Amino acid sequence: LILFWMASRKAELNRMIPATPNKKGALSRWMPHCEWNEKLNTDLKNIPVLLSRISEDVLRLSGSTDEAFKVKLAVEEALSNAMHHGNRMDSSKYVTVFMKADEQGIFVDIRDEGEGFDHEHIPDPTSRERLNQPCGRGIYLMRNLMDKVQFYDSGRGVQIVKRFVSSHDKD
Fold this sequence. Notes:
By secondary structure, the protein is an alpha+beta fold. The chain has 5 helices and 5 strands; from the N terminus they run H-H-E-H-H-E-E-H-E-E. Helix 4 runs antiparallel to helix 5. The longest helix is centred in the middle third of the chain and has 22 residues.
Protein backbone atom coordinates (compact mmCIF):
# COMPACT_ATOMS: atom_id res chain seq x y z
CA LEU A 1 0.00 0.00 0.00
CA ILE A 2 2.77 2.45 0.91
CA LEU A 3 4.73 1.57 -2.24
CA PHE A 4 1.65 2.10 -4.43
CA TRP A 5 1.03 5.49 -2.81
CA MET A 6 4.68 6.48 -3.27
CA ALA A 7 4.58 5.43 -6.94
CA SER A 8 1.49 7.56 -7.56
CA ARG A 9 3.15 10.56 -5.85
CA LYS A 10 6.27 10.08 -8.01
CA ALA A 11 4.15 10.12 -11.16
CA GLU A 12 2.55 13.35 -9.92
CA LEU A 13 5.98 14.93 -9.44
CA ASN A 14 7.10 13.84 -12.91
CA ARG A 15 4.10 15.65 -14.40
CA MET A 16 4.75 18.80 -12.34
CA ILE A 17 8.44 19.30 -13.12
CA PRO A 18 9.49 20.06 -16.70
CA ALA A 19 12.56 18.41 -18.18
CA THR A 20 15.68 20.27 -17.04
CA PRO A 21 19.31 19.78 -18.02
CA ASN A 22 21.19 17.59 -15.59
CA LYS A 23 24.27 18.72 -13.69
CA LYS A 24 26.30 18.69 -16.90
CA GLY A 25 23.76 21.01 -18.53
CA ALA A 26 23.81 24.76 -18.88
CA LEU A 27 21.70 25.56 -15.82
CA SER A 28 24.05 24.02 -13.31
CA ARG A 29 26.95 26.10 -14.64
CA TRP A 30 25.01 29.25 -13.77
CA MET A 31 23.66 28.10 -10.39
CA PRO A 32 25.90 25.36 -8.92
CA HIS A 33 24.25 25.67 -5.49
CA CYS A 34 21.35 27.34 -3.76
CA GLU A 35 20.50 28.39 -0.23
CA TRP A 36 17.44 30.07 1.24
CA ASN A 37 15.32 30.61 4.36
CA GLU A 38 11.53 30.75 4.53
CA LYS A 39 9.20 31.50 7.41
CA LEU A 40 5.77 29.99 6.74
CA ASN A 41 2.53 30.75 8.52
CA THR A 42 0.94 27.58 9.80
CA ASP A 43 -1.39 27.00 6.86
CA LEU A 44 -1.27 23.84 4.73
CA LYS A 45 -1.83 26.01 1.64
CA ASN A 46 1.76 27.27 2.04
CA ILE A 47 3.29 23.83 1.57
CA PRO A 48 2.84 23.23 -2.20
CA VAL A 49 4.67 26.40 -3.28
CA LEU A 50 7.67 25.56 -1.12
CA LEU A 51 7.65 21.93 -2.32
CA SER A 52 7.69 23.08 -5.94
CA ARG A 53 10.67 25.30 -5.22
CA ILE A 54 12.61 22.50 -3.50
CA SER A 55 11.72 20.00 -6.24
CA GLU A 56 12.93 22.35 -8.96
CA ASP A 57 16.18 23.05 -7.09
CA VAL A 58 16.86 19.33 -6.51
CA LEU A 59 16.04 18.40 -10.10
CA ARG A 60 18.28 21.16 -11.44
CA LEU A 61 21.18 20.22 -9.17
CA SER A 62 20.91 16.42 -9.20
CA GLY A 63 19.45 15.89 -12.67
CA SER A 64 17.25 13.17 -11.17
CA THR A 65 13.47 13.07 -10.87
CA ASP A 66 13.93 10.18 -8.40
CA GLU A 67 16.00 12.37 -6.07
CA ALA A 68 13.55 15.28 -6.50
CA PHE A 69 10.64 12.99 -5.63
CA LYS A 70 12.33 11.58 -2.52
CA VAL A 71 13.29 15.00 -1.17
CA LYS A 72 9.86 16.48 -1.99
CA LEU A 73 8.04 13.68 -0.15
CA ALA A 74 10.32 13.83 2.91
CA VAL A 75 10.04 17.63 3.16
CA GLU A 76 6.26 17.44 2.67
CA GLU A 77 6.00 15.02 5.58
CA ALA A 78 8.24 17.17 7.79
CA LEU A 79 6.28 20.35 6.99
CA SER A 80 2.94 18.66 7.50
CA ASN A 81 4.09 17.23 10.84
CA ALA A 82 5.41 20.64 11.94
CA MET A 83 2.10 22.33 11.16
CA HIS A 84 -0.27 19.57 12.33
CA HIS A 85 1.51 18.10 15.33
CA GLY A 86 3.99 20.83 16.26
CA ASN A 87 2.01 24.03 15.84
CA ARG A 88 -1.38 22.30 16.16
CA MET A 89 -2.58 24.28 13.09
CA ASP A 90 -2.33 27.50 15.13
CA SER A 91 -2.16 30.23 12.47
CA SER A 92 -0.32 32.58 14.83
CA LYS A 93 2.67 30.20 14.83
CA TYR A 94 5.32 29.75 12.15
CA VAL A 95 7.40 27.01 10.60
CA THR A 96 10.93 28.04 9.63
CA VAL A 97 12.67 26.29 6.74
CA PHE A 98 16.34 26.57 5.83
CA MET A 99 17.57 24.80 2.70
CA LYS A 100 21.06 24.47 1.28
CA ALA A 101 21.84 22.31 -1.73
CA ASP A 102 24.49 21.72 -4.36
CA GLU A 103 25.31 18.95 -6.86
CA GLN A 104 26.41 16.69 -3.99
CA GLY A 105 23.20 16.81 -1.95
CA ILE A 106 20.68 18.77 0.07
CA PHE A 107 20.32 19.82 3.71
CA VAL A 108 16.93 20.99 5.01
CA ASP A 109 16.21 22.25 8.53
CA ILE A 110 12.54 22.57 9.52
CA ARG A 111 11.52 24.01 12.89
CA ASP A 112 8.12 24.64 14.43
CA GLU A 113 6.99 26.64 17.47
CA GLY A 114 5.22 23.75 19.19
CA GLU A 115 5.93 21.89 22.41
CA GLY A 116 8.07 19.19 20.80
CA PHE A 117 7.67 15.44 21.07
CA ASP A 118 9.56 12.34 22.17
CA HIS A 119 11.20 11.37 18.90
CA GLU A 120 13.01 8.48 20.61
CA HIS A 121 9.79 6.49 21.12
CA ILE A 122 7.89 6.61 17.84
CA PRO A 123 5.75 3.51 17.22
CA ASP A 124 6.75 1.32 14.27
CA PRO A 125 4.10 1.84 11.55
CA THR A 126 4.97 -1.55 10.04
CA SER A 127 4.06 -3.46 13.20
CA ARG A 128 1.02 -5.73 12.92
CA GLU A 129 -1.15 -3.63 15.26
CA ARG A 130 -0.42 -0.37 13.35
CA LEU A 131 -0.66 -1.56 9.73
CA ASN A 132 -4.30 -0.53 9.28
CA GLN A 133 -4.00 2.87 10.94
CA PRO A 134 -4.39 5.78 8.51
CA CYS A 135 -1.56 7.88 9.97
CA GLY A 136 1.83 7.55 11.63
CA ARG A 137 4.02 6.84 8.60
CA GLY A 138 5.57 10.27 7.97
CA ILE A 139 8.75 9.90 10.01
CA TYR A 140 9.13 6.32 8.78
CA LEU A 141 8.99 7.56 5.17
CA MET A 142 11.43 10.39 5.89
CA ARG A 143 13.94 7.97 7.40
CA ASN A 144 13.64 5.60 4.47
CA LEU A 145 13.90 8.27 1.77
CA MET A 146 16.70 10.40 3.20
CA ASP A 147 20.27 9.59 4.20
CA LYS A 148 19.98 11.33 7.57
CA VAL A 149 17.04 12.48 9.70
CA GLN A 150 17.93 14.09 13.00
CA PHE A 151 15.55 15.72 15.48
CA TYR A 152 16.68 18.44 17.88
CA ASP A 153 15.30 20.85 20.48
CA SER A 154 13.02 18.22 22.02
CA GLY A 155 11.52 17.42 18.61
CA ARG A 156 10.71 21.00 17.60
CA GLY A 157 13.22 20.81 14.78
CA VAL A 158 14.34 18.26 12.24
CA GLN A 159 17.34 18.25 9.94
CA ILE A 160 17.26 16.05 6.88
CA VAL A 161 20.09 15.25 4.48
CA LYS A 162 20.06 13.57 1.08
CA ARG A 163 23.26 12.91 -0.84
CA PHE A 164 22.78 12.76 -4.60
CA VAL A 165 24.22 9.85 -6.56
CA SER A 166 26.42 11.21 -9.32
CA SER A 167 26.60 9.54 -12.72
CA HIS A 168 30.16 8.32 -12.10
CA ASP A 169 29.08 6.72 -8.77
CA LYS A 170 26.70 4.46 -10.71
CA ASP A 171 29.51 2.96 -12.86
